[in-house]
Amino acid sequence: MIDLSEFLQPGMTGEVKKTVDIDDTIGTSSPYLNQYLSTSACASLAVSAAMAATEGRLPEGYLSVGRRLDLEHHVPAKIGTTVIVTATLRELRGNRLLFDVVASDALGVVFKAVNERAVVNRIGLEERGEERANQLKELRQKL
Fold first, then answer.
1. What fold does the segment set 4-142 form as a domain?
2. Burial class of 60 by CB neighbour count within 10 A (0 to 12, 13 to 18, 19+)
3. Which of 9, 86, 113, 117 is 20 to 30 A away from residue 44, measured at CA?
4. CB of 70 within 8 A of CB of 113?
């Protein structure tokens, strides 16, 4: 296993700045929520900020994949609001990365999250994904 402490250290940060637009809302699912940042968009922003923290820092051929996301959406953010999302690497344990994520607008915290990610070899990931797809295909053929 690769020693990630050669590449990453707790305290490293990644940031995403986003002005809420219609694509970040719940859309037509609810006419009452179509002007506000959706929780699913918050999740996407949290992951993007965590990935930004490791961008260009992982060894060649490695990437981080999501394992867990725990998100608390505190206040609404309306279309046109600019949100800054910062992910801070709290812990590095083997191939696991634990990020604390905070998103704020000009008035304060919009959401907080904890994102756990695993650093994996890209080729190994592709091989395991292909193997699983083949197993599912074989299972469908038996049914």
1. Thiol Ester Dehydrase; Chain A (3.10.129)
2. exposed
3. 9
4. yes
Which amino acid would we find at residue 58?
Answer: L
Q: Could you read off the pLDDT of 29-76 as tens digits, one per residue?
A: 777 788 999 999 999 999 999 999 999 999 999 999 999 999 999 999
- Total count of residues recorded for the chain: 143
**Which residue spans within the chain are E strands per DSSP?**
13-19, 62-73, 82-93, 96-105, 108-121
Can you tell me the distance from the alpha carbon of 43 to that of 108, in angstroms, rounded to the nearest whole number? 18
- Report domain extents, the chain: 4-142
**CA 70 to CA 16: how far, in whole Å?**
18
CB-CB contact of 51 with 14 (8 Å): yes
Largest CA distance in the chain: 57
- Token digits for 47? 């992951």
Q: What is the dihedral of CA 5, 10, 11, 16, to 10 degrees?
A: 80
Token pair recorded at residue 140: 């469908």
